[in-house]
Each structure stands twice: as C-alpha cells, then as structure tokens.
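DM from R.C. (forwarded with permission)

"hey, sorry to bug you on a friday — could you get me a structure for this? deadline for the figure draft is monday and I only need the backbone to look sensible"
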Amino acid sequence: MSLAAAGFYGLCSGSMSFINKLAMNTYGFNYPEIIMLAQMSVTVAALKLIHLLGKTDLPNYTRDNARLCFLPSLFYVLNSTFALSALSGMNIPMYNVLKRTGPLFYVFLAVCILKKGWPSASIIGAVSLTSAGCVVAGLGDISFDPKAYLFGICSIFLQGIYLTLVQRLGLKDEMSTNGILYINSLNCLPFLIIYSLLTSEFKECILFFHSATLQVYLILIFVVTAGCVLNYSQFLCTTMNSALTTSIVGVVKSVVTTIVGIFAFGGVTLTTNMVLGISMNIVGAFWYTFAKYRESLVKHIKRIGSAISMSEMGEVPTTATEQKRMHRMSNGHPPSS
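My reply, with the result:
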C-alpha cells in the first residue's frame, strides 16, 4: 500500500502540469482565478461530505481557526494564481526547471523567519547548482517570456512563505492535514471571489462559456477534479510513507515531466544552454534529495546510539512514560518533553 500511495501521488502530481496546460493553452481557458475558485469549492464540499459520512474529522470554522490560517491562506492563493499564470506562458520543461529552485527560497526564509542556522555545505551546493541550472536554461529558452518567468519566480517565493508560515505557526500540531486543507480552502474562497469580480476574469469567463463545447466542459471538470485528487494524493503519500518519500517522488516526477514535456504541446526548441541548464538542474535536484536523506539518516543513527547508551549506563526505563520515550527515540523521533 505504501508503494501504491507513492506511485499514486507521482502520477497525480506529474499529470497536473499537463492537465492545466491543456485547459489553458489548447482549449483557451486561461482563467487561473476561476480554476482555483472551482477547485477550492469542490475541495470544501468533498471534505464536508466525507466528514458527514464519518470518514474524517474536521475542525469547526471558527474565528480563531480562520485567523490562525489567514496569512498562510493568503499566500497560498497568491502562489497558486501566479503558478497557473506562469504555466500558461511557459513550456513545461522550463516550468519544472524553475520550480526546482524552490529550496533556494526555503533556505533564505528558514534563516530569516524561523531563525534557523545555515544548512550544510552539501545542501547549499545542491541548491546553488539547481538555481544556476535554471539561469543557464533560461538564457537558452528561445520562447522566453519575461512576464511568465516573473510570475514563476513570484509563485516559488510565495509558496516558500506559505510553507514557512505553516511551520512557524505550528498548524500541523493544531489540526490535521485535512483540517488545514479545509480551513485554508474556506479562507481562500472570499479572496478568489472578490478578485474575479473586481477584474474582468469573471465576465470574460461567462462569455467564454457561451461558445464552449461539451468537450471544453468535460476538460474543465477533469481539471478541477484532478486538482482536488492531487491534494488528497499528497496527503495520502505523506501519511503512509513520509515527507522524505514525498520529496523523492516529487524529484523523480519533475525529471520525468521535464523529459516528456520537451516533446509535448508542439515540442520545444532545444538549445545548448537549455540542455546544459536542465541537466544541471536535474543533477542539483537529486543531489539535494540525497543530501537531505543522508542528514536524516545520520540523525536517526545518532538517536538510536543515544538510546543504546542510556540503556548501557543503566538508565533502564521503568515507567510507561519512560518506555514510550525510549521507543520514540529508537524510531527516529525526538524525545517528548
């Protein structure tokens, strides 16, 4: 089941870029706010239905919960909107290359917002190689669209802020992942509704539907459903495996979609800079994943060694609480305070 969950997430995540690209470029539905609004609405409805069926627990939408998730929700909707806007003006290989520069922003935000120390030399080296590959590939992109690249960079930075805020606020300790997704989706709805009404996107979307065919409606239903399934698959993979497994699947998925995307949607004109940059980006992504895995493994071994040392020194747990603490340490978890 664990392997199936990882494969399910990889398939959903890898397909999503192509599905969004199909709707916005092939069928001309270039309305990212409306897509987001539909996905958030369906997500709320689906989670509420599952909750009513007794399959999951959801927190009440109170003022405190809404306020707790307000900033993450704001940056989440901005990130998603910029990401869809970037995808509409970029080819998929370059979009994936740009997305892999995310760790560069995460390192910076972790130091500035979470007050963490600088990462190891291996992590910095991997992040630098990945980002340098993006620059080299971008210089060789004949179809370079400055607006799309700007949207892409903004999306990555906003995603970093969103994830960092979730970590800083301790939302994962306050409520379940489904709970965060539920409150976050409800918070996003007013932003999306107000923006679509203040801009011409809602009006243009109505006019678009006047001449839309049945095939277009089916594609849009597919896009919205796929977005909701992607969120669920990510949650499933993380809970059944680990965040590290999800990260590794993401790297593999990104490499595969980059290669497939070169030949999709009319193809991409490859240049020497693009091939070199994409190669640097892929190597840096795998280097980063390996470095994170090695650091996690070293920490796990140190915790096991600490637990064994305590046992050899005669500090044998006698109470249920102490036994639980030893068990957590031997399984790579930090001791509870």
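R.C.: lifesaver. The chain has one domain: 2-288.
me: no worries. The first helix runs from residue 2 to 26.
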